[in-house]
Amino acid sequence: MKIIIEGAGEVGSHLAKMLRAEGNDIVVIDNDAARLAQIELSADVQTIEGNPSSIAVLRNAGVAHADLVIAVYPSAAQEVNIVGALLAKQLGAAKVVARIGDEDYLTAENKLLFKELGIELMFYPEKIAADEIVDLLRHGSSSETLDFAHGRLQIAVFKVDENTPLLDLKLSEFTQGLSAEEAAQFRIIAISRSDKTIIPGPDTLFRYNDLVFTIARREGAENLVRHFGKKSLSVGRVLIVGGTAVAEMVARGLSRQGIEVKLIEKNRERCLELSDHLPNEVQVVNGDGRNSDFLYEEGIRDCDAFIALSENDESNVLSCVVAKKFGVPRTVAEVENIEYVRLAEEMGVDSVINKKLITAGRIFKFTLSGKARFVKYMSGTDAEVIEYTVAPGSAITKGPLKELDFPRGAIIGGVVRGSESFIAVGDTVIEAYDRVAVFALPETVREIDRFFK
Fold it and tell me: Which residues of 229-248 are buried (b: 16+ CB within 10 A; e: fewer)?
C-alpha cells in the first residue's frame, strides 16, 4: 500500500516504522527538518519537508494515488489534521484518518458528520488510553484484558511470579491436569519472555516473569484466574498522580462507576482547572506525587489501585514501584517510551499504557482486508490481536484448523458463532460469518489476512 503520514512526531514516527516493516510504501510530510532527519535514521521511508495542509505539498507526495493518509501532525491545533485529511480525500486518497484533541468530536452525531465529509476514522489517543485504563480496572486480576462480543470471549494477560502455580511447569503438564470441561473454557495462546514472543507448544515451560496471554469463555474466566494464583480485585478507591488530559478523563470515568478517586497534581493552576472540570466526587490535591511521605499522608496504603499518569515516564514507573511497597494491589503507569515498557513490567508495574501502541492498532486495521474488525497491540509483546469476520468461501473455512497450512507464528484462540462462543482446537471448522480472534506475530499478519479474504 502507498501510505502518506502527515506529521513526524512520536505517533507519526512510530506508525511509519511499523507500517514500513509490513512492506508498505511510506511517505512522511512535516515542516520540521529535524524531525524528518530523525525518522530517516530509523526507517526506510520517503520524507517531504512542507506544510501537510498545503495542496502543493500533498500533490508532490502523490496523495492522488495514496491508499491511506494518516493526519497526525504533532503539537498543533486539531484543525490542521482535519484540514489535511479532508484535502487529501478531495485530492484522491482512498482512505483518510485524523488525530483530534477534542472529545466532543467523537459523539455519534459528529463522527457521522465527518464520515460524510470523507474522514473514515478520527482518533483521540488520550481518550483511547483513558478508556483502556478504566476498562483495565474492571478486570482486577490480570495486567491487560480485551473483550470480544460483549465479553463472551476475553483475552487476558497474567504475569508468572513466585506464587504462580504454573511456574516451571510444561504446558502439557498443565493441560493434562485439566478436566475436559475446563479445557474447553480457556486456552494459553502466547508467552512473552524478555523481548521474544512465543507461540507455545506442549514442551514450553512457564518461567518466572513470563507474560502469559490467554483466551477464555466468560464462564471460564474465574477458573483461569485461580490457575494463575491470582485473586479477583474489586476496586473501590483509586489514587491518580498527574493532572494530564488522560488523568482527567480517567478520573471522570472511574467516578461515573462509583469509585472513590483522589487526583494529585503539583501545578496549582492545573489543580484549579481540574477542580472546575471534574465531578465534585473527585478529590483534587495539590502536591508532589513523587514524594513517598506525601503519598503516605494522602492515604496510599488504603487504595485498591494506583495510576501514574504524569508526563514523565521514569516518574510514573518509580512511583508505581513505591506504591507496590506501600501494599497497593494494582498499579498502572503510562509509559510513552516503548523501550521502557518491558522494563516497567519487570520492575513490578501491573499494567503499562502506551498511547502509540494503542493508537497503532486502530490505524493498522485500515491496511488489512475489510474483514478485519479491529486490531490491538498488547503491552509486553510485538504481536497483534486481530478480530476477523469470516467471509463465505474464504480459505479459513476449507477444513479443520489442523489440516490448514496456518502460519506457525499465529494461533486462532476463540470463535463467536451467533450467540455461542467456544475455544478453537485442531478439530474446529471455521464457518462463514464467524467472528474469530487471532493472535499473530507481525511477520505472519499478511499471510493470515489472505486466509480471511
Answer: ebeeeebebbbbbbbbbbbb
Which grid cell sits at 221?
Answer: 474466566
pTM above 0.85, yes or no: no
Coil, helix or strand at residue 135: helix
Do residues 203 and 172 make contact, with C-beta atoms less than 8 angstroms apart? yes
Cell of residue 125, nine digits: 489517543
Cα dist from 119 to 53, 59, 128, whole Å: 15, 18, 18
User: What is the set of domains in the chain, with CATH numbers?
Assistant: 2-123 (3.40.50.720), 144-227 (3.30.70.1450), 238-328 (3.40.50.720), 369-451 (3.30.70.1450)
Task: Look up residue 230 and give its three cell numbers.
Answer: 491470582
CA atoms within 13 A on the CB side of 409: 14
Query: What three-state secondary structure class fits 250?
Result: helix
Q: How many CA atoms lie within 13 Å of 116's alpha carbon, on the beta-carbon side?
A: 6
The dihedrals phi and psi of 287, each to the nearest 5 degrees, come to 175, 175
Total count of residues recorded for the chain: 453
DSSP 318: H
Cα separation, 155 vs 38, in Å, equals 36
pLDDT tens track for 146-174 = 777 677 888 888 888 888 898 999 999 99
3-state SS assignment for residue 316: helix
